[in-house]
Amino acid sequence: MTLDLSCHIGGASRPLPFALEQRNPAALDEVVSRIPDAGPAEIAEASAAARAALGPLGSGIEKRADALDQIGARLADARSDLGRLIARETGKTVSDAEGEVMRAARIFRFFGGEALRIVGERFASVRPGVSVEVSYSPLGVIGAVTPWNFPIAIPAWKIAPALAYGNTVVWKPSEHSSAVASHLMDIIAASGLPAGSVNMVLGGRRAGEALTSEADLDGLSFTGSEATGNAVALTCARRRIRVQAEMGGVNGLIVLADASLEAAVEGALNGAFFAAGQRCTATSRIIVERGVARAFAEKLAERVAALRVGDPQDPATQVGPLVSMRQKDAVQAAVATMMGAGRTALQAGRRDAAPDCFVDPVLFDDLAADDLLAREEVFGPVAGLMIVDGYEDALETLNAVRFGLCGGLYTGSLKHAEHFKQHARVGMAMVNLPTAGVDYHAPFGGTKASSLGSREQGRAAREFFTVTRTAYQSAG
Ligand code: NAD
Does the pTM exceed 0.85? Predict the structure, then answer.
């Protein structure tokens, strides 16, 4: 059944002609959803509705806290329906999708609590008789632009803190995950928040550009690719709109000779290939110490060959399809470039012609620092091994990229683990864990080309979503 979707503005559905469609990546003849491509007029309406809702939303923190808690509870109740919808619309495996829905539920509940903990500070003044108070007030109307690869958790970690701290939202979800977005929007709209607190405009690049360049906003929170994030950040800077942009990664995982080989193989398999490599925190460079390189490569290649690639609705599937033919073409082109450069695939292409948006996982044996896969985000189930001589060499290799989202180290050495946590030039350092997989209440973000602006998630979100105000008072 095809879902015909509408924008949601000022508390009401706002139908527009359909312009885009999303097909089931595991069965391309099935159209999952049809959506409009909103333009400047709808964006202006949505931002006006958000501006008008600022007063009503700001009047009660308990109401906000209750609404966020209720959204969390409803998401948890809907997890199996929503999980199946995410699998159908984006190709994410149903078990990953259900896990993501629960994560979104917990994010809403966490920020329900945070709405009641908007505390300030009182300073002793250097001037006798003067008091100094620091308080945090809402930033205002927030634009949220989100990708398809975490179609519900990423919107949750922008919308929930925005509301908790008293902001209203105009949200533009990805054109590839608008059905999931509409489901979340319905749950938000039924939560008792004032109409216009969250407005959803559907569409692709046109809608995103209109939101960034024309809407009446105070802040814009973006997650997506590096190119789009840079363009969005430049536009916001010109318009003096506060911006945060979470972008890509070319994440490295170091395996030292003193690591547990089983654990390292498991971590590399998970980080590089699960979610079909479509996580910004995925591992693409596996940096292995020479002494264990052969044993590690053999074991990992065996595990990659045994990965269950298939129907994302089947709970036994480990790797589903990519989200679209465009993404499949891009991943296949990257693999062809690597092959053209003479690189060896230890494991690739078990099926002659993978159907629909499926691609087979590929593990390259001899990745070099200037290879495409070692420099740019490929965003598919593709990774390569790089052989190094010792920890220092490994760390230098890990740090020698433009990006710095996350990085990992498998080791038995406390000394190297401690050093790595301080010197890996990344926002998130993982020791004896896969590069992907983070807690929902701790700061999330990267360094270098991976991120711009302040951190998301947990209490760190307050920095972006509030204005810090310092008030001085004398007895007069
Ligand atoms: P994308 O940049 O193509 O799209 C992201 C969003 O921006 C979508 O809603 C899209 O419609 C919108 N958009 C497209 N062009 C726009 C424009 N010119 N102006 C404004 N908005 C525009 O990214 P994607 O393919 O949806 O997502 C995958 C990317 O997201 C990967 O690069 C991945 O690494 C990144 N990502 C990063 C994080 C992180 O936190 N660092 C998390 C998840 C995904």
Answer: yes
